Amino acid sequence: MSAEPSRIRNFSIIAHIDHGKSTLADRLLELTGTIQKRDMQAQIMDSMELERERGITIKAKAVRMDYTAPDGEKWLLNLIDTPGHVDFTYEVSRALAACEGALLVVDATQGVQAQTLANATLAQAVGLRIIPVINKVDLPSSDVDGTLEQIFDVLKIVEDPVLISAKTGQGVQDVLDAVVKEIPAPSGDPKAPLSALIFDSSYSTFRGVILLVRVVNGTMKRGMKVKFFSTGTEAIVEEVGFLKPKMIPAETLGAGEAGYMICGIKDIHTVRVGDTVMEKDRALAEALPGYKEAKPVVFAGIFPIDQSEYTALKFALDKLNLEDSSFNYMADSSQALGFGYRLGFLGLLHMDIVKERLTREFNLDLIVTAPNVIYRLQTYDGKWRVIDNPAKFPAHGEIKSIEEPYVLLTIVLPIEHQEPVLNLIKDRRGVYVGIEYLSPTRMLIKYELPLSEMVVNFYDRLKSVSKGYATLDYQSIGDRESDMVKLEILIHGEPVDALSQIVHKDKAQDVARKLCEKLKELIDRQNFEVAIQGRVNGKFIARETIGAKRKDVIAKCYGGDITRKKKLLGKQKEGKKRAKLIGSVEVPQEAFLAVLKIDEDAA
Question: What pLDDT, in 10s, does the model give residues 377-425?
């Protein structure tokens, strides 16, 4: 039997990475008796090995808690867990659309950080009731008053905060009381036509696609014929239920409830996360708000080191894409690396997670090429083209203008690290927007930055120059015209497509020179001289030469006429000329990683 909507509270926990979101979720599950003490383990909501290892949440989750308040009142609490990292903002926005309120967790030892600000702004935009929760108040280094001031000054949140220590459990009962008292009940109508928001999906080999849904209006029952609004896919509901956090089947899911539905769908791409589920016979005129399609912003080539693993890579991508439909992929080939795939990701952490999962879960050895972004360019015939791969870049004489994507960067950092951070942003072609002082010791800076300057090593360099204290968030602000060129690397006169990249004209020479120097260190000597060259718009702008291996052919000539020695040296010279004409150079795997590491070496 479905719960009465007035007794339901749907809420989310939002926070910056490592501010204690997963730990607070653990305490709530423990306190409400959803999970017995003997079954408890840290980060219980983070089921993926990578999530536990890195201490981050990657996928949105939902768990139902039956809570009996101290006064004997019974409540049904649905916690919809969200990721904290900027790359997974699309997950956060969907999870928030399924809630009426949010707990904003802020670490008392670190204060408001970049993603605290970003996620709180998202929640405010959706119109959620925000309850500030100040965590880690038991630590000697905590600054509760300073954190409270920042929450008010930066986020403009005036509600009284709940002071807790998620690790020890101090104050967690107050969090439950605040959820029941402060967060409004869902306003759905159980008798209206069915409308439910899909906020996440996963794939089971035996059951097919498992959809996590929040029912807004109506009732979802087993055996009901449903239709998905944006794709038009029709299906019959085989099972509905809720998560505690294991799946528990139920007869119905009523208005205001969150749970799962299984329809026996075998292809995850026929349903979209963020879509609206409706009854087939009582179709809706419009979809629920909150649906946005995830758009990849970073692209990279992934190639198997051993070409015999190409089929295994295809199988792995097909399978992984069933669980994470937010990356896309298409077949690609390279003269240097052979056959592989070109993948589109939501950001650099997303790229790192996908590559790590392919390596671990499918036991593949992979080479990932330098990541790049999407460029829009106009040719002289007036046509616009979208370029996501440097290999597809047209000849320079055909290009009229090029546009590259820009992001608005928000960085929170201690004031003493201001100078090196501002120098880094200036070096990456940043455009100043504004500076705000959060406290006497911390500041917030905003810059507009080309996304291409962020995809290689920006985050690592920022952490390095700020000694780990700076935190960042970014959001897309559209495309702008830029003077971009294609930098080609030629080895022994042959362009190596996997080393090509699109760079700003002012930086081309510097990048080409560093890359040629790096390749000279990595490529083995041959029996002939090898030239490594950087070329832009048909002109060579950098060159390094790897000298030929030389055998001492005159070592055994102890005496005799000088012409004998000259004859032997002449023969050697002719042999090297012939070898140069027909010789080929094998480029080692490290060379493709060199593109990613140029910046590190320059630092």
Answer: 888 888 888 887 787 788 877 888 888 888 888 888 888 888 999 999 9
Q: How far apart are CA 68 and CA 56, in angstroms?
A: 30
- Position 447 scores a pLDDT of 92
| Protein fold of 298-368 | Alpha-Beta Plaits (3.30.70)
Rg of the chain over CA atoms, in angstroms? Answer: 29
**In Å, what is the CA distance from 160 to each residue of 143, 145, 598?**
16, 12, 49
DSSP assigned state of 24: H
Q: Which residues, in sequence order, are CB contacts of 325 under 8 Å at separation 6+?
A: 201, 268, 269, 272, 273
Counting every residue written for the chain, the total comes to 603
Contacts with 377 (C-beta within 8 Å, 6 or more apart), sequence order? 384, 385, 387, 394, 399, 400, 401, 402, 403
Highest mean pLDDT among 6-10, 164-168, 255-259, 432-436: 432-436
Helix H or strand E encompassing 566 = helix 562-582
For the chain, the domains span 5-182, 195-279, 298-368, 391-482, 487-602
Phi and psi at 532, nearest 5°, equal -115, 120
Tell me which CATH homologous superfamily contains domain 487-602.
Elongation factor 4, C-terminal domain (3.30.70.2570)
168-186 confidence digits (pLDDT tens): 888 888 888 888 888 888 8
| Token pair in block for residue 10 | 């749907």
Q: Which two tokens stand for residue 445?
A: 């800076």
| H-assigned helices in 306-379 | 310-323, 348-362
Structure tokens at 529: 């001289």
Check whether 52 has a pLDDT greater than 70: no
Question: What's the sign of the alpha-carbon dihedral 388, 389, 394, 399?
Answer: positive
CA distance 252 to 241: 7
218-275 confidence digits (pLDDT tens): 888 888 888 888 777 888 888 888 888 778 888 888 888 888 888 888 777 777 777 7
Give the fold, CATH level 3, of 195-279.
Elongation Factor Tu (Ef-tu); domain 3 (2.40.30)
Q: What stretches of 371-415 adopt beta strand conformation (E)?
A: 375-379, 384-387, 399-414
DSSP state of 386: E
Its pTM stands at 0.68
CATH of domain 391-482: 3.30.70.240
Q: Which residues contact 107 (CB under 8 A, 6 or more apart)?
A: 15, 16, 18, 19, 20, 113, 135, 136, 147
The secondary structure of the chain in percent helix, strand, coil, rounded to multiples of 5, reads 30, 35, 35
